[in-house]
Amino acid sequence: QLQAFGGGLVQPGGSLRLSCAASGFAFSTYWMYWVRQAPGNQRDLVATVTTSGITNIVDAVKGRFTISRNNTENTAWLQMDKLKVEVTANYFCYAYYRRREYWGQGTQVTVSS
Prior knowledge:
The chain is mainly β. It contains no helices and 11 strands. The chain has strands at residues 2-5, 8-10, 16-22, 31-37, 44-49, 55-57, 65-70, 75-80, 89-97, 100-103, 107-111. The strands form 2 sheets. Strands 2, 4, 5, 6, 9, 10 and 11 form a 7-stranded mixed beta sheet that branches. Strands 1-3-8-7 form a 4-stranded antiparallel beta sheet, with no helix packed on it. Strand 7 and strand 8 form a beta hairpin. The chain is globular. The termini are far apart. 32% of the residues are buried.
């Protein structure tokens, strides 16, 4: 299973660090993703990290968000800096390997003054 946490209310320009703790499966073999869903919208991919640590961030947040992982700690993170109001959403972590997948429960990020 995956457990995501670290969301909260933050002012524009602030930072948050989301964590995703994995248990019960071989975390190191799974690609990890952060996905977000704003009210009324579909889920959108935000960031990807491969098993070896190669990362990809979508253009909308590139330069402000960083994804990382530690296969020893079975944890992935999403560092979110210079936050803007438009990134307000429920953020989910997701693991995928050979048609096996796990979803975290989501953690709410609200950027507001």
